[in-house]
Amino acid sequence: METVKLAGAIVALIGSIFLFLGALGILRMPDLYNRMQAGTKATTLGSILTMLGIGLFHLPWFWQAFILVAFLVTTNPLSSHALARAAHFKGIPLTPKSIEDKLSEDQTEKEDTMPEAEIL
After folding, report:
1. What average pLDDT score do residues 99-108 get?
2. What is the DSSP string of 19-44?
3. Which of 5, 28, 39, 107 is most buried by its number of CB atoms within 10 A?
4. How do the domains of the chain map onto residue ranges?
5. Residues 19/50, Cβ–Cβ less than 8 Å
6. pLDDT, tens digit, 9 for 90 and up, residues 28-39
7. Residues 54, 12 contacting (CB under 8 angstroms)
8. How far apart are CA 5 and CA 58, in angstroms?
9. What distance, in Å, lies between the first and last C-alpha atoms of the chain?
């Protein structure tokens, strides 16, 4: 029983380190899109590990923590993706260091191949 608590504490500690690195990435990245990517990946993994560590440390809470992990895995990347697309369509610029913008290239190709819409 004590080894499970120790494992839970170690997993929660690793999760908190990932959460710290996500916050550090948000501070260090040059533009909104890079900040969002760094924050989302690190905080998703950090939150998952923290929740599972808490579930292992306190075993009666394991299934509740597992449900929270499933919710985080589905909602965190989806919401980040939706926010990044909205920011892109709003016109928030990328950093000048960015090499290419696949989303605007795809949008330009779609506009070139779309038939003209009829105005009623």
Report:
1. 68
2. HHHHHHHHHH-SSHHHHHHHHHHHHH
3. 39
4. 2-113
5. yes
6. 988 888 888 888
7. yes
8. 7
9. 71
